[in-house]
Amino acid sequence: MQQVSDASRSPGYDPAPTNSRALIVDSIRSAGTVSRVELTQITGLTAPSVTTLVRRLIDDGLVDEAGRGSSTGGKPRTMLRIRAAARYVVGVHLSADSLTYVLVDYAGAVVARWRRAGPGEDSDPEQVVERIATETTELIERSGIDPSLVLGLGFVCPGPLIRNRGVTSAPPSMTHWVGFPIHRRLEERLGLPALLENDATAAAAGTRLTTSHDVSVMAALFMSEGIGSGLRLNGNVYQGAHGNAGEVGHICVQIGGPQCWCGSTGCLEAIAGPATVVAKARAAGLDLGSPRRTGVAAFAAIARLALTGDSRAEAILRDSASWLALGAQTITNMYDVQLLVLTGPAFAVAGTIYLPIIQERILSSAFGRAVDTEVVLDERGHDAAAIGAALMMLRSERAISA
Amino acid sequence: MQQVSDASRSPGYDPAPTNSRALIVDSIRSAGTVSRVELTQITGLTAPSVTTLVRRLIDDGLVDEAGRGSSTGGKPRTMLRIRAAARYVVGVHLSADSLTYVLVDYAGAVVARWRRAGPGEDSDPEQVVERIATETTELIERSGIDPSLVLGLGFVCPGPLIRNRGVTSAPPSMTHWVGFPIHRRLEERLGLPALLENDATAAAAGTRLTTSHDVSVMAALFMSEGIGSGLRLNGNVYQGAHGNAGEVGHICVQIGGPQCWCGSTGCLEAIAGPATVVAKARAAGLDLGSPRRTGVAAFAAIARLALTGDSRAEAILRDSASWLALGAQTITNMYDVQLLVLTGPAFAVAGTIYLPIIQERILSSAFGRAVDTEVVLDERGHDAAAIGAALMMLRSERAISA
DNA sequence: GCCACTATATTCACAGACCTAACAAACTCG
DNA sequence: CGAGTTTGTTAGGTCTGTGAATATAGTGGC
């Protein structure tokens, strides 16, 4: 193949697989089980091409036949499915207060997850690399799979990143990480290819689509310690020129608003992000458990209070939600998506409070109504970023090689 | 070819040409003159492939050899260039107060332009189709080119659109146009393929890149009667699920802000758009010429006052600019572009007032500084949308057929 | 002015992807 | 049980793009 130069692919939105083999694998994976005829419809390839490609995938042990479909008046369809045990990938999501690991099989299912306390604010990058390497190895060992089947590791952390140099740059609570090429270090340490992405973008890749209609353009609104978003087009994430697209946390929603760590003022994250919500709750005298509890853990405590009837906690969260609704409106206006998914650790606990408020604003904004944008909550919010990191690795070129 | 199904291409961001022939044509067009060796580098194709493809393009009369480059120690390069007179396309930009036509040759250069008064607010769609058809025919005739060389017509108007149905929907001052399939009617009337796009998106396609470094991800901030933006990735515009991406005019920049025609409140366009600027200027007692002067014409009058030293006019425009800077910041945060171009009729006159204010905000926002986003003014702002419409047609499949 | 040397472009034979057309297989229904 | 229907495969051909070898048109040494 090789029709499009590397140079012209640089923005990283990875224009749909030029590769028919990858297209078939993707189609089977997202469908669960399909027949060859259905694949011809989904992919636009001809029946003979599907036959050939599928045969090779079966020969390579990546796809299995899975029984017969029911007849519709003729020969019944032979169903195909991804051979889940063919390959595995690891996804790792690092933030200050938690470190999440997932092991994902070739079908895209999570076969193991592990959530650990984060390394904290003052962590030494080299020690974190060492810890992640050790724990990744342990995860693989305990799962009992053949380590040689692990394709690679997707690593995500809060953005922004400098993607071309593959280096984290100025994350909120980790300034001493600036310039540290963590994924390269992980590659060296583990002997596996590693991919670096920001958490929100990965979350967009990790969201399972459970809507009725076809969704080819969707976005994730991601809230962890910060607020971000990711855009997915036909299964490929859009990363922008420097890998920092979707920084909805740092759009200005209030002229003269509060100072943000990013240097700007009035940022959505500074006004309504988890850190601010926690600070407000503490100021209001809410009991969030240990005073050392910070970040998403403290935020979750507020959400639990609100859900058990604390009206002060609820008011604080509803205020935050009204600002996030504004961010959601910006996402739909800028990206024109069919679906917006709320995801990330913060939404995992507080999502039910945020969802209706955000839905209401999207539906009442004119363009939202005109184009019928759906807003849903991701039930896997806590692991979304790690899963997304794994799935991005799963969709890489090497994942389909024999 | 046909590797990727129509279904999977639906979002309309048209992943870089799968077609090598189109890739070569695009590369030559954007380079001006290039040699075959350079094409191998730009396109990633091998030398023999370039030879073959270029020979066919020359045989088909789409490309010419254009002398020798200087030798670098061996055989000098044979330079290639697009045969400008091979084909032509027409671009039409309709807004309430102006109707702009451009005739663009196969090299992408504007060979004729024509600006006429717009049809006004109460125009009858069928009459406008008739008028555009007549004037398009006249434009082609007066230019003296062979009408059979005209490939098609790109038509743009203020968004939002319903792209799949190819129908304009609820533009600000043209509600009675809702549901009118103008490009289909133009196709019937002119016997030429026509393409419908919103003005801001087309403007992104029409911006000439004159920056030093390679720009693969850029956006246009477009101001005409309304405010919009367009995103361009490797020469392909991103249109979103329904063709309404980039609606930066309707992001909320002020909670509880003024009512917008779109139904929402606090929209950038309602606060700082040309209509509001004109209303403020009239309220301040500024003389904008005829009281019947509206839209961009009235806005231009204010800009001229400001540029000739009227401090009230300047203050009003600077206030508008500070809000647009906010919109620009949102664009760079969401899209992560390398370049942001201010374009459109409103910037054509007032751009020099807006540019420094917008630049200042982009450069002072943390991510802007980190990633070095450039902000420039398009010198062809007035025609950008029409030119972009033409160029989009020029990049269509049929434009490279023999 | 002739001879290397070098960079540019082309020719030729071949591999692979994908298509059309014809065919085989496996079920339903009368 | 055989016609009809749907699913999947085989066979043959086209087209794109490749690698290896070759032709072309300059430069610079002597």
Could you walk me through the main structural features you see in this protein, from its secondary elements to its overall organization?
Chains A, B: This is NBD/HSP70 family sugar kinase. Helix content of chain A is about 40%, strand content about 20%. With about 400 residues, chain A is an alpha/beta fold. Chain A folds into three domains: about 5-80, Arc Repressor Mutant, subunit A (Orthogonal Bundle), CATH 1.10.10.10; about 85-205 and about 385-400, 2-Layer Sandwich (Nucleotidyltransferase, domain 5), CATH 3.30.420; about 210-380, 2-Layer Sandwich (Nucleotidyltransferase, domain 5), CATH 3.30.420.40. The radius of gyration of chain A is 22 Å and the shape is globular. The model of chain A is unreliable at about 1-15 (pLDDT under 50). The interface between A and B is large, with 67 and 69 residues. Chain B binds a DNA duplex (30 and 30 nucleotides) through helix 4.
Binned strand content of chain A: 15-25%
Q: Work out the helicity level of chain A.
A: 25-40%
Total helical segments of chain A: 13
SSE arrangement of chain A, N to C: HEHHEEEEEHEEEHEHEEEHHHHEHHEH
* Number of β-strand runs of chain A: 15
Give start-end ranges of low-pLDDT stretches of chain A.
1-17
* Main β sheet profile of chain A: 5 strands, mixed
CATH fold topology of the largest domain in chain A: Nucleotidyltransferase, domain 5
Largest interface: A-B, 67 and 69 residues
